[in-house]
């Protein structure tokens, strides 16, 4: 178990995500690391973590949604409707709150200015990132699924093989993961200071929720969608269903 990739473990049972999160171990952007490697880097007991994983998986909870069993076209539709819409909605809600906090509390808490700047950069980058997925990568995934089901050939995408846009998406995921780790650090893990007002508390709670949703969003793509899209393309090529 200790040599398994974190992303694979979470992909099989999303309940384990809460365990990794409790140890401050990234299961989405850095999901390719083994459990042992992550524990060593964080300086946590691998045996304690494994015990907590076993407990999470054995408790009488409702089974987590098994996204790995979903057809890829259904999964990309879910990501768009659930996570892309969430980013769009929450971005326009959080930004005015952050602007207000900077005006009212920025002098006493200059870290708010940094947080606001990082969040502004994040929502701009995520907007462009999601457009590329919705206009380029996701339509191609849908075409591949349809081709495999119908046996009808499709044209090779203008970007070449699917690993090309996937590589860019993973790179951009890593950048956002790092950005939100810095936001979390600057906000003391989203802890409102003693002199913080209600807006302060609400804004930090929303930022934490935003990061949690982003972790699941990236996990679904990095650890489930992308690893399945590559062999799908390979199967279509072997059957002569992708034309140059």
TrEMBL record:
Pfam families: Hemerythrin, ScdA_N. It comes from the Bacteria. It is found in: Cytoplasm. Residues 82-229 form the Hemerythrin-like domain. One of its GO terms (molecular function) is metal ion binding. Keywords: Cytoplasm, Iron, Metal-binding. One of its GO terms (cellular component) is cytoplasm. InterPro entries: Hemerythrin-like (IPR012312), RIC_family (IPR019903), ScdA-like_N_sf (IPR038062). This is Iron-sulfur cluster repair di-iron protein. It comes from Croceimicrobium hydrocarbonivorans.
